[in-house]
Amino acid sequence: MGSASTTSAQTCLTCSRPECVVCSESEDSVVLIQCDEGHPICQVCLDKYILSNVKKLRETDYLPAKAETAQISEDGATLAFLRGACSCPLRGHGCGAAPFGDRLIALNVSDLTFAEYSEGKALLPIARKVDQVVQEGSELALLMPNARMCARCHYGPVELAAGSCNDLTMHHGEVRAPGRAPDTHSPSEDAMDSGAIASSRFS
Ligand SMILES: [Zn+2]
Ligand SMILES: [Zn+2]
Ligand SMILES: [Zn+2]
Ligand SMILES: [Zn+2]
What we know:
Blueprint lengths: L5 E2 L24 E3 L5 E3 H16 L4 H10 L3 H7 L19 H7 L2 H33 L3 E2 L9 E2 L34 H9 L1
The chain binds zinc ion (4 copies).
One zinc ion binds next to strand 3 and helix 1.
């Protein structure tokens, strides 16, 4: 992750003060975190910076598409932001340092901010997962526009083409593939007379 370290020798680049604007009584109590290129930021500013980044990230639409664009154009600063990583505030403005490591952030921000930070890092993977599910669903819909599946046992898809068997209740609970067990819910729960199903399956 790099060699980011803490020091109290410099002033915070963001608030330009050697002491914490919020809680510090003396210069000794301020802790400055440095990026790999040596740009200092104080704990208070880091905390606020992370919170505002996560807020921005939550308000960002189309995360997977934007991340892909950033990757293609090798825009590391944007990609790091979209991934929920916390970079030096000067990243993209002359600083090429790697994002701060999770451990460094955990040690220097509040528990609440760290929780926000962790949620921020999960946003892109979650958005990708959602996109994937939506895409798989629409691919299936394109392939089999008239297909229907049993919502309970997931038998199907069955195509509602002319002459084909389109009565899902006839297949209710069937084993579709090796290793795939039929579910155990009662066919009658699917609003069909179980006797009728039995006769259509076994006669
Ligand atoms: Zn500061
Ligand atoms: Zn403070
Ligand atoms: Zn930097
Ligand atoms: Zn079923």
